[in-house]
Each structure stands twice: as structure tokens, then as C-alpha cells.
Amino acid sequence: GPPLAGRPLAELASWLCSLDPMYRSIGLAAINAFWNRADGPLASSHNGLERFEPLGDGLVVVGGFREALKKLPMATVIERELQGNDLSVDRAKVQLSEAKAIAITAQTLMNGSLEPLLTRVDHIPMKLLLGPSAPVCSILFEHGLTAVNGLAITDPGATRTFIAETGAMIMLDHLTRPLSLDK
């Protein structure tokens, strides 16, 4: 692909609209570089799902946040890679129509499924986008979301070293700061 160095951040951010998954990931990274800053709006919790009642009644979760969902056993999970009682998107029509809240993985920005999903859930009062790559920006409220939970990297040097040495893209708590924005 084309070299990235020297390109304006806005140009890289526009790549989120690309059909190519690699360009989309660069676009989202550019957007997060601008919005998800360590001095951004501090979240009260690290993953955002803590805002829901302990059992998760009436909550639909798009994406398999497996560890966090252990505390929300009544939540309905919609997932592309099904596990256990997960539902596929095409089998979740009733659950989406009856939902009181929906928590959506930021991965939907990467695979292009967020916009079509938001057109189907306008009736749900609470619509949360969450995950490490969720851009914490109010522009998302114009598209129907009511809250966003993401992360900011607090130590870029240590993060680069961690990823280079481990090959892992997981974000460790001591390298990040949770961010949250509500409409």
C-alpha cells in the first residue's frame, strides 16, 4: 500500500470508509489517535458493561465480551462466531425488538456492520459503543448512539515495546485509561 508517513491525520481517518479491512483499521486508528487521548473524559469503569444491572435483563450485547458477560448472565449475545447460547444476527430480531439497552462492540466499525445495525435499533433507549477501539467522540451521537466507552493509551513507548515483544494487541490496565462519553 501507499506509505503512511507524512499523510495528514484527516486523510488517514477517511480510510475508515474503505472496503479494504487494512485501510479501515488504519482509518480507525487515526480517528482514535485524535479522539482517544489520555486527558479525555474519564470512565468510571474499564469496560462500560458495569453500567448495566448485575444480571443484564433486557440487554442485548453485540460481540462476545466473554469475561465481562459472566456478570450479566441474562444478557442476550449476538455474535458472528457463535459460542454457547449466542445468537446470529439473523436470529435476533425478537431480542432486538424487545431490548431495553444494547452494547455494541467497536469491532462493528471495522467490519462495516455498525451503521446497518443502528438503523434497526432506533427504538432502544440506551445504545452503547464499547471496546478499546471505540472512538470517544460526540459525533457518534448524531448516528444514534447514546454512550461510548473506549480506551486511551497512557504510555505510548511502553505500549509499543509491549506489542513488539509479545505480538499481543491486548491492552493492559497499566498502559491505558478508560474513557467514557454520554449523550
Which spans have pLDDT < 50 for at least 5 consecutive residues? none
What spatial form do the alpha-carbon principal axes imply?
Answer: globular
Beta-sheet strand percentage? 15-25%
Radius of gyration: 17 Å
Helix count?
7
Q: How would you explain this protein's 3D organization?
A:
With 183 residues, the protein is an alpha/beta fold. The protein is 29% helix and 17% strand. It has helices at residues 9-13, 21-35, 66-69, 93-98, 107-111, 114-120, 156-166, and strands spanning 59-62, 76-78, 101-105, 126-130, 147-153, 176-182. The chain has a 6-stranded mixed sheet. The longest helix has 15 residues, at 21-35. The termini are far apart.
Secondary-structure map with pairings?
Elements: H1 9-13, H2 21-35, E1 59-62, H3 66-69, E2 76-78, H4 93-98, E3 101-105, H5 107-111, H6 114-120, E4 126-130, E5 147-153, H7 156-166, E6 176-182
Parallel strand pairs: 1-2, 1-3, 3-4, 4-5
Antiparallel strand pairs: 5-6
